[in-house]
Batch of 2 targets.
Target 1
Amino acid sequence: MYRIRFHGRGGQGMKTASRILGTAFFLEGFEVQDAPRYGAERRGAPIFAYVRASRSPIHERGIIRHPDLVIVADDSLVPVPAAGVLAGVTGDTLLLISTTETAATWRDRLNLGDAVLTLPAPPEVEDRLELRFAGAACAGAAARLTGVISEASLEQALQEELAGLPAGVVEKNREKALEGYALMAAHEGRVKAGAKVSARAYSAPDWIDLAFEKARISAPAIHAALTSEKMPTGLWRTMRPVIDREHCKRCWWICSSSCPDGVIDIDAENHPRIDYEHCKGCLTCVTVCPSHAIRAVPEHQAVTAEETGA
Amino acid sequence: MTETLFKHMRDLPSSHLLGTGTPTCAGCGGLQALHQIYDVFGGKTVFVNAAGCMTLLSVYPFTPFRGSWLYTAMACAPAGAQGIRDALDILLEKGQISADEDLQTVVLTGDGAAYGMGLSATSSAIERGLDFIYLCYDNEGYGNTGQQYSEATPHAARTSTSKGPQGYPGNKKDLFSIWAAHKPRYVATVIGAEPLDLARKIEKAREMPGPRLIIALSPCPTGWDFSPDATTDIGRLAVRTGIWPLKEYENGKVVHTRIPRKRLPVEDYLKRQGRFSHLFEPVRKEALLAEIQGRVDAYWEGIEG
Amino acid sequence: MMRKLLTGNGAAAWSARLARADYIPAFPITPQTEIVETLGNWIDNEQLPARMVTLESEHSMITAAGAAAATGVRVFSATSSQGLLYAMEMLYTVAGWRAPFVLVNVSRGLAAPITLEPDHNDIMAARDSGFLQIHCADCQEVLDSVLMAYRLGEDERVRLPVMVNQDGFYLSFTREPVDIPDPGAAARFLPDYDPENIRFRASAPVSQAVAVLGGAPYSYFRYESHLAARQALEVYDEVAADFEAEFGRKREALEAYRTEDAEYLFVQLGSFATKAREAVDRLREAGWAVGLLRPRLFRPLPEEKIRQALAGRKGVAVIDQNLSPGRGGVLHAELASVLFGHADMPSILVSFIGGLGGRDISTEEFFEMARVTRRAVEDGKAPPPRLLYTETELREVRKLQAIANAERADLEKKP
């Protein structure tokens, strides 16, 4: 059975990617499961979707714990623990990352040997949420890596899954999917169908006898305030608002009042300060600033600038 | 009522009480209004929530509140507020808690609960004179489940259950008037894009006893299909085109707190949102646009001086 | 102590008064209404320092009850039948808040067809809600059980809401002599409510009943509720011992009536079990070794006590005043699962469905059920479930059907 997991952000088409791949397998005569997995998080937040495909009926269900192939549409998610990109990844797992960096860089970084492949991400993308066609490219690449999906099946799957969208959008997706398919030609068939779990030797679950605990502990209640601040929603951000202190007129803090998440505070000198740990990057502040003193910078550039002290 | 603390924009809070790190979408117009409202209410509150997007504000073990919270179910948040208010009053009367342990009871629901499933419970809470504030963040659809149309969805809007060429065939229910018909202490419409108007109304509501009900139109990037940075722009346009009148009900009278000097055409508001794009592409649906504009014009007739 | 003639509803109202309930969310429904009417009158006449509010539905009523309990006051409420079902979403919900209160349910059959008369399908529908359940056989027991229910539910080892069930008409509207304890004795038995850390106060922010993501926290919270309900078995015995010490009445989790040397046992819930007692007495006179087991505590189910009581018996007649369509009697299925796999358990469990929608069960029918059970033991095989229903009754229904113009041809073929 093939076990394949797609990771991206809400809005980058991971569900569509999993469906295109699922349908492509199906057209090739496979039994298939595909499903997206959502949490409480929203647009811009990490999500994943998965596909199982097998020549025999599939009895597994739910999240894929030991993937044979992991495809990452947005490389900024790889280091984010909450995204779970590397969950269950072993030496037998192939990792395909859509990135502007080289495979060698990622191999070193992740210490994963030659099991890392890259798909060139469009370098001109400012805001990663604009990676609208990332899903199609990933689906195309994944199809080739399995070695069991023809280009025709991929195309047909894409047409079926995108039916109803404007013709231009479908065409652009088709282009991207075929590009992804072509780019992986040298690696055709690299993904090997994973083995089934053996009942002869397995690690037993560490079951416990759940003990009774009094309701003061075991009621679903939070006996504290402001604990949400432990959630680093800044990770959702793909574009960063940056305040130009020169141009900021230190007005009546319309940026602070308007920020949906309330992440802009005004300091003693009336300078606004953005809490990047929690700013989700909606950029409302950029549009409301009367003196245009806030600009949007791609997050990866901002991070690089920070790291290099620029 | 003493004079407002919020005379100018610079009187608005410059640091905020609601915690960050919530799972609402980037650019959420509901959260924009809520954090502004929370700045005025403060932490001596217990929010009673019905099923909706905001239910996910408090997901174990994370909460953005300084005060308290109770999730009930979709239909019955006002009844939850009733139980809490009554219990606090009992404890106060019996001297089992001191006055500074008291809490303001705030119902927080979306439009799905407010306009539909929870309307009966709200009607009854008002009728009983419950001392509470009802805060409805109205994003004009069942947003938490993917924006199916609700009883708050405007005419012609595309939702995930009204994808046809004409959009949603129904008309947005006039919840303000329905609430006001109960003659509660106070009803107001607000929007996060007009924070000063909002702060004055919330400040006013905070000081009153009895049922006080607030509807905050909540531009929703996800459900209305616009870029998250446009939340405030779209909110301002809702006011300036007159499609979202800012008003309050008190002592049997409705007063408009903001009468647009020169109303912009309503399509300025509509065309910024993907949910209305079928009104403009591939061809302009003149009849529908005229119908929507006509309703807005009819509303303001006699109100504009 | 006063001894007065009280209906089951009157006894329920008295129990709320003796429990010093602070808050009574209400909604009228037959045959429960008299409870809230009585409490309302006492409040109006300043005989009861409580606050009552009538909500617009039972769904809201249970929400207000749970919310008030979660704020830290003692709450009493009552409902019946359709009302209990209308509240069902909130029964499950508030049980998870771990904020205890007592709800009296006056059992009444469920629609369709709609009826006012009793059976246990309403309370059985709430079986898995997380509320504990105590089932009463007479009016005294209603009063006693509510007081015990507060002690049980409020115990820090339990912290769950409790339903006390009484049968509509047969108890709710039937007067019997009832001992009404002195308020002082009631207060000794049931001290003031301690909400612990489950309450709303400005100085201690708490977010209650919050959402969870994922199966690990969900399983934990749900299973802890279950473990708390299981703890209630032990706590119940302590409460019953205290109750007996204070009031002299034994209120065991499992009532055993003349079971000492019994070979055959009736097992039944609720007020109709007193009819079974009568039948047991008559059968004993006729030389039968017969007894009755009546679980008062249905959630948690006192399984070990049931097994001990049934060990070595020959046969059991389970009388269900409920019907799970497509399955049969709920108590029968529960009992079978309690006995299965244990040594020395009776191998014959005969299922009888009776008393649906207030249909009476005659003493002769109990005799016959005993006979059927004995025969099954002799045959070594239980007969199929039997609905207690007579030819005379069918004839009555045929007359009704004739007026209702049901298919005449079919009616004429069969009697």
Target 2
Amino acid sequence: MTVAFKKIPLYFVAILLLVFTGYPFLYMISTALKDQSGFFEKPFSLFSSFKLENFTAVFEMGLTRYFLNSLLVSTVAVLAVMLIASLASYPLSRMKFKFNRILFLLFISGMMLPIHATLIPIFKLSESMGVYDTLLALLGPYIAFSLPISIFILTQFMQEIPKSLEEAAKIDGCTHFGIFWRVVLPMLTPALMTVLIYNFIHLWNEFIFALVLISSPESMTLPLGLQDFKGEFSVNVPGLMAALTLASLPILVVYLFSQEKVVKGLAGGSVKE
Amino acid sequence: METQLARAKTVSKSTSKLSSKTLKNVLTISLFIAPALIVYIVYVLYPIVSTFIYSLYDWDGSSAGTFVGLHNYLNLLGDSIFWTSLTNNTWVVLTSVFVQIPLGLIMALMLFAPIKGIRFFSSVYFFPFLMSTVAIGLLWVFMYDPINGVINKFINLFGFENIAWLSEANTALIAVLIVVVWQFAPFYMILFKAAIVGIPEELYEAANIDGANALRKFFHITLPLLMPTIVSSSILAIVGSLKAFDIFYVMTGGGPNHGTELLGTYMFKQAFINFNMGYASAIAFVMFFIALVVTILILIMDFYRKKKGAY
């Protein structure tokens, strides 16, 4: 009895935090399911109606396009990062050479860098390359700014693969590329998974490069498209909430199905097993 | 004589073999690193240098600029909006370190509390960190709505009048900072959770034998052992706060009357709305410089900490 009594404050704090973190989601989904008059009558009631018209309206307004753009650019950028970051991490973590330490620091110091310090030159570059306002304009900066964390995660992981394995491969006459492809890369899977999840979620949500490098709706990514919806939906709150719900859904679903992987991935190698 | 010659031959042969081997090694290393390095130079290193050069010009972005030396930086020193932005950035840093991180720690501790439904609690606690910043910003803009907003409804319960949270100078910054805390506390929760898992159970068992209560255990075991995580979290929070942009841009655009202006939003406006690209570059370079100084300070601190053998 006293033990149960002692736990009441704990439950109180736990539920307080639950409301703080979870309520905005309930509010968003429940508002998305109301029509406009329903919203004005009862703006605060939770799940008082279940109308799906907002969701169809949002699709008609081009959400699918933004969705596919985001999917395309995030996927291509993440795959490219996984390849070139693991290539670079191999000599950085497993070979001795003169500028190793400096190169490594140069790469990972990018994590501290404010993107703003590169915005204007990258904007000018996209114009002179003729890719401004296309998804191609986003690829370069997306890959480049995902490199620091990816190289950091991959080098840390590679250092722990025993050297004896590659020495055996070397005796068998394997070149460095052979060792990389056949010995190191297959063992990297968990680290590559972290790199994939971390970068995919960050790029899926990326805003500032898209804001600067994209202007026409055909090339907009999801965050930019949502920002654009704000103007169109300034009086239609349920409509906007439907768009927000749909935009947040994919990542939430992935999270619910593989929580541990997503959490570990988002902690970006700062959490070790 | 002949043996000498033979020896010289083998020596030269072995050195040439050695240098061809190192040459091959250099080539291999370069090939491995080249793709990453080229992308990194084009989109990160060259732009930083370029930003500095732009910052020395009075330039609208399209026509040829005029060289003005350090004039943009001098103007910056006398620009009150620049100082407001810097102050607001400092507020973001302070909130991150002194509100976000402690809240993250409390959330992590709750995950180890002896109560039911922990799995459910921990899943929901993490939700905010998964949502895109733009979506979060838009959602909260409507939650802060002066008339139909749920936040006002909530404070009405306690007898307070409606507040126009985001359009009043003295509430806008706090309102946005609450959202920043909401978004990032779960991230620190994860870092602390992992650190708490790593604390050996025996320490608590020993403390139990000594009859220590929960509070003593927290202050004498948990907190000291979490110090490295608190330090690294603070570093992440400081660096992240200097870069803050998205949520402020979406929620207030830096308004009302620059009340929530950050270096990031101010730079963006100067560059892409007013087309003062030279001036904007100066702001951007100051942001880079601050990040650089913070990084160097962290590296120095880290160096001395390692030297002392702590952690």
